[in-house]
Specification:
The complex is a heterodimer.
Chain A (H helix, E strand, L loop, with lengths): L4 H6 L28 H6 L12 H4 L3 E2 L14 E2 L11 H20 L11 E6 L5 E6 H7 L13 H15 L2 E13 L2 E5 L3 E3 L2 E5 L2 H8 L3 E9 L7 E2 L2 E5 L2 E5 L5 E7 L1 E9 L13 E2 L17 E9 L8 H23 L5 E12 L3 E10 L7 E3 L11 E2 L8 E3 L1 H5 L3 E3 L11 H5 L2 H8 L3 E11 L3 H18 L3 E6 L5 H13 L5 E5 L17 E3 L19 H15 L13 H15 L16 H7 L5
Parallel strand pairs in A: 5-13, 6-8, 14-16, 18-23, 18-24, 24-25, 25-26
Antiparallel strand pairs in A: 1-2, 3-4, 5-17, 7-8, 9-16, 10-15, 11-14, 12-13, 19-20, 19-22, 21-23
Chain B lengths: L11 E10 L3 E6 L5 E5 L14 E6 L11 H23 L1
Classes of the chains: A alpha/beta, B alpha+beta.
């Protein structure tokens, strides 16, 4: 396959391989050369062997073949006449452009490698050098700040420290205009014991649940034919459970609406929704986590329970065959919420003296800093691929609308609304990558971006992922327009699970990228959930995988977005906004890419990044012990 | 993972017909009586809303046994699910 002139320019530094047989005397043009992106495949398949002295595309264009060569011959000096090395004087116009670009790159590079960095709050230094081809350098303050220390990294004589300082002062002034948009207070109540009683109430650190509450829950939903309630204390973690459909915090509004005011929350206890249909078929789509609880939960992830927490676990039985239809799973969630709602009411009435901890979240508009948004793609294909948006109580169901019913169109929320439970997750895609309701409540990416003083998190946009491609592109276009109207400096797009949702994931990234907004994608992919499609804007991606083999292993929350991923995503976005070069992806998934990035961030910021444990920390199931992970010692 | 396989990259193009669509899954019948495949709905890429009768194309390779060890827990759970479905089908037939 020959290439075009544009491709040749783009790949001037890639190897020059002939695409067909050419006679001696041919002047080498782009149309004589093989597409560089195919070369690794050709090499793998053994069709091609590349000698050390192979020339690059930029070097061979315009030269003359001395002898006749076959297809897929790497071009070397002895085959060609008139080769000019790329370091030499160039005669071809195209090359001149290329070379100039190379020079520019070189002048930036030393700055890029500066480390370690003193933390400066936000902004960039813009330096304009009015010579030659009007080179514009944009260096993040965090790096430029280091220049003022007079280290040997000041490679460009045009940058004077006084200029930087002056600029810095100006920036600082701008930064001072911070506006508080809203506040959210979380009041924590400690629960150490859960028991059944005559009425639902909180007595000190004991939560009593009315013993006949199940009847109300059962009567509330037509599709629910049975519901059981179990109180799982840590000593019962080893017991069998049906597949976990959701993990939910118990919280209620004391004052204000979701996203502001005061929220009361119970510590030490979570609601766990599980269920089957009346024939015993798990309510979970392909990949369910039924089995011993402690072997199927990745403890301590944003979306999972903490070790030591008490589970209020419902086991909902719905009508036969309805588990795979949209109303079935919804009914299971709503029936469970009847119980939770009663606990919420009692939490509202709990005595103020029982508050053990207070957290305050503040949403600020930080003008003068890079304005970014987080875009969360949520499942919207129906059934277990759905989410309730904006209930009246945190993570409730009452008052909420399903995003499938909303047509999956983008919905803009504030970061505090997300942290206050504006999403009730109905998602039951693979347990390892689904984001539970609790995940949104503790969403690490929102927390990381909101607390980062170098960026201004303007909001969180939820966009559903419909089934059909035509609808995917329909919602994606709206997302693009939303972004355009917001006048952003950057965006991070996340998606859970894998499959056709990566079609719209790619499209969202394109819609944002084509508007000139730097964009970073976050998803689970590793070896199993490879992206179906890609485009030119998808060069900055964060892989959420934690499993040692790079696969989905049905362990709850194992491959979900965790704090370490959030730190990487924000760092990558900042690098992209600063215009730093991002290396091409490796051809095969390699866990070291992530570790290298983590090391770099630690080096640059001096911040220690805690890496999450993965399934290796759990008791190995027989399958894992004997087949996949045999220990040699 | 692929280094466990002895025979690799033998995937070829297959076609099939969607014979069942639920909110969560589709069943694809392979053309040429080669069997059936049930996959999550979100795994199927389509320009239109999925319908019974739609033709789909995909690449597949032959499954190869990579370990003779019996995976008991996984098998048990899968069997339990299959049995539950079989019972449900029977009951629906008698209705």
């Amino acid at each position: 396959m020959s290439i075009t002139k544009e491709t040749a320019q783009e790949h001037a530094n890639d190897l020059a391989i002939t695409c067909c047989r050419f006679e001696a005397g041919t002047i080498i043009e782009p149309s004589n050369l093989e597409d560089p992106s195919l070369i690794p495949d050709l090499e793998d398949s053994g069709l091609l062997e590349i000698p050390d002295n192979s020339l690059k595309i930029g070097e061979v264009l315009g030269t003359k073949l001395k002898e006749t060569v076959d297809a897929l011959t790497p071009l070397t000096k002895d085959l060609l006449e008139g080769v000019i090395s790329m370091d030499g004087k160039e005669e071809v116009e195209e090359e001149e452009v290329k070379k100039q670009e190379n020079k520019e790159m070189k002048s930036i590079e030393p700055v890029k490698e500066v480390n370690p960095v003193k933390q400066f709050s936000g902004g960039t230094v813009k330096i304009h050098i009015g010579e030659g081809r009007d080179i514009n350098l944009e260096i993040p303050l965090s790096i430029a700040g280091n220049l003022t220390e007079g280290t040997n990294q000041v490679s460009n004589s045009n940058i004077t420290t006084s200029e930087v300082e002056k600029r810095e002062e100006q920036e600082e002034k701008e930064e001072q205009s911070e506006k508080i948009l809203r506040k959210l207070v979380r009041k924590h109540f400690k629960i150490e014991k859960v028991d059944l009683g005559r009425e639902t109430r909180i007595d000190g650190t004991t939560l009593y649940i009315r013993d006949d509450v199940l009847k109300d829950a059962l009567d509330s939903e037509e599709l629910v034919i049975d519901i059981k309630l179990e109180i799982i204390t840590p000593d019962r973690y080893g017991e069998y459970s049906e597949t976990i459909m959701d993990i939910q915090p118990i919280a209620t509004k004391e004052e204000g609406e979701i996203g502001e005011g005061v929220t009361r929350i119970l510590d030490g206890v979570v609601v766990v929704v599980t269920g089957t249909d009346e024939d015993g078929v798990q309510i979970g789509e392909f990949g369910s986590s039924e089995g011993a609880l402690d072997r199927n939960i990745m403890w301590g992830r944003p979306g999972s329970p903490e070790k030591g927490e008490i589970f209020i676990k419902t086991e909902v039985t719905i009508k036969s065959g309805r588990g795979m239809e949209r109303p079935g799973p919804m009914a299971a969630h709503r029936a469970t919420d009847v119980i939770t709602q009663e606990i919420r009411e009692s939490l509202k009435n709990a005595n103020e003296s029982l508050v053990v901890d207070r957290e305050e979240f503040v949403q600020r508009r930080k003008s003068g800093r890079k304005k970014v948004v987080i875009i969360k793609e949520i499942m919207g294909q129906g059934a277990m691929h759905d989410n309730y948006i904006m209930p009246t109580e945190p993570v409730g169901t009452i008052g909420a609308k399903a995003n499938v019913d909303l047509g999956n169109v983008p919905v803009v929320t504030s970061p505090l609304q997300v942290l206050d439970g504006c999403i009730h997750a109905l998602t039951c895609i693979g347990p390892a990558s689904k984001e539970t309701s609790r995940h949104y409540f503790r969403e690490p990416l929102v927390l990381e971006a909101m607390n980062d003083d170098e960026i201004d998190l303007a909001g969180v946009i939820f966009v559903g992922s419909p089934q059909a491609n035509s609808e995917k592109f329909y919602v994606s276009k709206f997302l693009g327009m939303t972004i355009e109207a917001m006048d952003l400096d950057g965006a991070i797009i996340t998606t859970e699970g894998f499959g056709n949702n990566h079609v719209d994931f790619a499209s969202h990234i394109e819609q944002v990228g084509m508007r000139g907004v730097p964009v970073v994608g976050v998803t689970y992919s590793a070896v199993q959930g490879q992206l179906v499609v890609g485009n030119e804007y998808m060069n900055a991606m964060i892989d959420n995988n934690k499993s040692s083999q790079g696969i989905e292993n049905e362990i709850l929350s194992n491959n979900c977005l965790a704090p370490e991923d959030a730190i990487r995503a924000v760092a990558m976005l900042k690098a992209k906004i600063a215009g730093e070069e991002i290396k091409d992806a490796e051809r095969k998934w390699n866990a070291n890419v992530k570790l290298n990035n983590v090391e770099l961030i630690e080096e640059q910021t001096g911040r220690k990044i805690e890496l999450e444990d993965n399934e290796q920390s759990l008791t190995k199931s027989k399958k894992r012990q004997e087949i996949y992970e045999v220990e040699n010692d | 993972m692929t280094n466990k396989l002895k025979y690799i990259s033998t995937e070829s193009y297959y076609e099939g017909i969607i014979v069942e669509v639920t909110d969560a899954a589709v069943i694809i019948d392979f053309k040429g009586r080669l069997g059936q495949l049930k996959v999550p709905r979100r795994m199927v890429i389509s320009n239109d809303e999925l319908e019974v009768g739609h033709q789909v194309g995909f690449m597949m390779t032959y499954p190869e046994v990579i370990s003779k060890e019996i995976d008991e827990t996984y098998t048990e759970s899968a069997k339990r699910q299959m049995e539950a479905r079989r019972k449900a089908d029977e009951r629906n037939k008698n209705k």
